[in-house]
Recover the amino acids of this structure.
């Protein structure tokens, strides 16, 4: 009995054709239903074995055969991360900062990042009360106490409220100058 459709024909009487694969083990006449990889570099290329021979093949299979100890260690580490590259934690922050610094200085793109160096100046040391006092007096370190005393006298005369007719701003400036002088006097006394 055969049914016909336009452009298509088939028969209910013909059984479907089944491809039977023989076992790849030499001298075996069984059906090869079970696949096994041929080698580690071609894991998608298979031998087809019967159940007994696939068991024997799998028992003798050594994925790492022919590899040195270092190669085995490298392969195991690579498989630990599902064969994806990894980077040390926090490293991306350092690279991003170096790249940003390099670009802000107008250097070539990523030159410092590639070399792994940074040409930034060292961070400034925290300011001390002595630094602030020198700024109030308009002086720069290093300086001797005699020069500090001379500068203090000059500024005290210039900013004394009596010379400014009782001006409150002059009084405030003189207070800051006196405080700065006392800080420096104590610092020079401590250091000898």
């Amino acid at each position: 009995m055969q049914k016909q459709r336009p452009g298509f024909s088939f028969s209910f009487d013909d059984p479907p054709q089944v491809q039977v694969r023989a076992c790849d083990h030499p001298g075996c006449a069984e059906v090869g239903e079970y696949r096994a990889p041929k080698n580690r570099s071609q894991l998608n290329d298979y031998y087809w074995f019967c159940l007994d021979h696939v068991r024997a093949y799998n028992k003798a299979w050594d994925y790492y055969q022919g590899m040195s100890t270092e190669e085995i260690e490298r392969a195991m580490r690579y498989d630990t991360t599902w064969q994806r590259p990894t980077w040390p934690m926090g490293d991306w922050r350092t690279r991003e900062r170096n790249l940003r610094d390099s670009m802000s200085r107008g250097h070539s793109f990523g030159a410092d990042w590639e070399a792994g160096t940074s040409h930034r100046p060292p961070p400034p040391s925290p300011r001390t009360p002595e630094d602030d006092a020198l700024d109030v007096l308009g002086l720069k370190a290093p300086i001797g106490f005699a020069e500090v005393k001379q500068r203090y006298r000059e500024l005290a005369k210039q900013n004394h409220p009596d010379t400014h007719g009782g001006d409150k701003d002059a009084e405030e400036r003189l207070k800051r100058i006196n405080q700065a002088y006392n800080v420096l006097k104590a610092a020079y006394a401590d250091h000898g």
Notes: Residues 168-190 form the longest helix (23 residues). The longest strand covers residues 42-49.
